[in-house]
Write a structure and sequence with these properties.
Protein name: AB hydrolase-1 domain-containing protein
Number of helices: 11
Strand content: 5-15%
Bound molecules: 2-acetamido-2-deoxy-beta-D-glucopyranose
Strand order of the largest sheet: 1-4-6-5-7-8-9-10
CATH superfamily: Alpha/Beta hydrolase fold, catalytic domain
Keywords: Signal
InterPro entries: AB_hydrolase_fold
Organism: Cavenderia fasciculata (Slime mold)
Number of strands: 10
Order of helices and strands: HEEEEEHEHEHEHHHHEHEHH
Distance between the termini: 62 Å
Structural class: alpha/beta
Number of domains: 1
CATH architecture: 3-Layer(aba) Sandwich
C-alpha cells in the first residue's frame, strides 16, 4: 500500500522536460490543472508566466491580473489562492490571472546580473507583449512584489486600472538604516545556505523547520493551507537546485532592494503629492506590535492614491500561507472599486512624469 502510494505520488508529480521549455503543469493545482505556461523570450532572457482563465461573457473583455510574489518567492507561492481566483474571475471581470517567475526563480531564465525592479518592469512589459498577454492590467503584489506593482503603474499608467498590495514593501523602506542592515543579514544567511546546499545539509535543515519562511522554504505542512503536495515538492526542488540558481537569485535580489525602493521613492518625490492620483488601490496589510511604524507607512502608502482602501489584519507577513481569504476579499474590494469608481485622472498621460 505504501509502495503503491509513493508510486502514485511520483506519477502525479512527475514533470517531463519537453523540447526547450520545462513542463510545469504538475507544479500548481495537481490533476486537471487548467493553467497555461508562457515562456516569452525578451532581450535575451526567457520569463515563465503561468496563466489561468475562466472565461464567460461577463469577463471576456476584462483586464488581466498579474501577480508578483515576495522575495525570495515565485509563482507557486500563490497556489493557495488560485482555486478562489478561478472561481471568482467572472464576477471580478478579470479575463486572465497570470503568476510571474522573476528571473532566476521558478522556471524563468537566470539573469547574469541583478535586475533592478525598474528594469524588470520594462522586461516584463516586453515579455507580456511577446506572449500576447496584452490589454489592461490589475496588479497584485505581496511583500516585495508591491515595489513591482508601484513601479509598473508609474511606468505604464495607461495600462493599469487597479492595484492590490498585500503587506507590501513601501517606497520609504530602502531608506531606513535598519532595513539596509537587515539586507546584509539576509545576504549572510543566504551565503551560508549556499554552502550548506553544496554540502547537502540544507535540505535536512529545512525539513527540521529551521529554515525560516523569509528564505523561501515552503514546508510540507502547507498542504493544510491550500497548497498541493506537488506544488510544495516543486517549490522545494527549485530552492534546493544543486546549481544554487534559486539561492544565488535571492542574493541578487537582496542586492537591488535598497536601490529599487529608493528609485521608486525619487520617482514619487518628483511627482509631488498624490502621485497615484485616483488609481483604484486596495492595501491589505498586517499590524505588528513590535513595529508600529509599519502601520504608519502602510497607511501612508495607501494615501498615495485618493481612491484607496487600507484594510488591517493581524496575520503577519505571510498572507499567502495564513490568510489567503484576506487576499481574495482584497480582490473583491478592488474589482468592485474598478467597476463602480474607476480612475478619471489616472492614466491620461504617457508614463513617468505624465501619468
Ligand atoms: C519531489 O518528489 C520526487 C518524487 O516523489 C522525489 O524524488 C523528490 O525527492 C521530491 N523532492 C523534494 C525536494 O522533496
Ligand atoms: C469588463 O472590463 C472591460 C475592460 O475594462 C469593460 O470594457 C467591460 O465593460 C467590463 N465588463 C463588465 C461586465 O463590467
Ligand atoms: C468559473 O466561474 C464560475 C462562476 O461564474 C464557477 O461556477 C466555476 O466553478 C468556475 N470554474 C472554476 C474552474 O473555478
Ligand atoms: C521618500 O523618502 C523620504 C525620506 O525617507 C520621505 O520623507 C518621503 O516621505 C518618501 N516618499 C515616498 C513617496 O516614499
Amino acid at each position: 500500500m505504501k509502495l503503491l502510494l509513493s508510486i502514485l505520488f511520483i506519477a502525479l508529480c512527475l514533470s517531463i522536460a519537453k523540447a526547450s521549455v520545462p513542463d510545469v503543469s504538475n507544479s500548481y493545482l495537481g490533476a486537471g490543472d487548467p493553467g497555461v505556461s508562457h515562456f516569452p523570450s525578451y532581450l535575451g532572457l526567457k520569463m515563465h508566466i503561468r496563466c489561468y482563465a475562466n472565461v464567460t461573457t461577463a469577463n471576456q473583455n476584462g483586464p488581466i491580473a498579474l501577480f508578483d510574489a515576495g522575495l525570495p518567492f515565485f509563482s507557486t507561492a500563490w497556489v493557495s489562492i488560485i482555486p478562489s481566483v478561478l472561481q471568482n474571475m467572472p464576477a471580478w471581470n478579470i479575463s486572465k490571472a497570470c503568476f510571474m517567475d522573476r528571473y532566476g526563480y521558478g522556471w524563468s531564465d537566470v539573469s547574469p546580473i541583478p535586475v533592478i525592479t525598474q528594469d524588470y518592469v520594462m522586461r516584463l512589459h516586453g515579455s507580456l507583449a511577446v506572449a500576447g498577454l496584452t490589454g489592461k492590467y490589475i496588479l497584485v503584489g505581496w511583500s516585495w512584489g508591491s515595489i513591482f506593482v508601484q513601479t509598473f503603474s508609474l511606468t505604464y499608467p495607461k495600462e493599469v486600472v487597479g492595484i492590490l498590495t498585500v503587506d507590501g514593501t513601501d517606497s520609504k523602506w530602502g531608506l531606513i538604516p535598519s532595513n539596509q542592515q537587515a539586507v546584509l543579514v539576509y545576504t549572510d544567511v543566504m551565503r551560508g545556505y549556499i554552502n550548506m546546499n553544496n554540502m547537502g545539509t540544507l535540505e535536512p535543515l529545512a525539513r527540521s523547520g529551521l529554515v525560516y519562511s523569509y528564505y523561501g522554504w515552503l514546508p510540507n505542512e502547507l498542504v493544510s493551507s491550500g497548497y498541493t503536495p506537488c506544488s510544495l515538492n516543486a517549490s522545494q526542488e527549485v530552492l534546493l537546485d544543486t546549481t544554487n540558481k534559486f539561492l544565488k537569485t535571492a542574493l541578487q535580489e537582496y542586492n537591488i532592494m535598497v536601490i529599487s525602493s529608493a528609485l521608486l521613492n525619487f520617482t514619487y518625490a518628483i511627482k509631488g503629492p498624490n502621485p497615484l492620483k485616483d488609481l483604484p488601490y486596495v492595501n491589505v496589510y498586517s499590524s505588528y506590535d513590535t513595529d508600529p511604524e509599519w502601520t504608519t507607512r502602510q497607511t501612508f502608502m495607501a494615501s498615495l492614491s485618493s481612491n484607496s482602501l487600507a484594510v488591517q489584519f493581524t496575520t503577519g507577513h505571510f498572507f499567502v500561507f495564513h490568510n489567503p481569504t484576506a487576499i481574495v476579499s482584497g480582490l473583491t474590494a478592488l474589482t468592485n472599486k474598478i467597476a463602480t469608481n474607476p480612475a478619471q485622472q489616472w492614466g491620461q498621460g504617457n508614463g513617468f512624469f505624465y501619468n
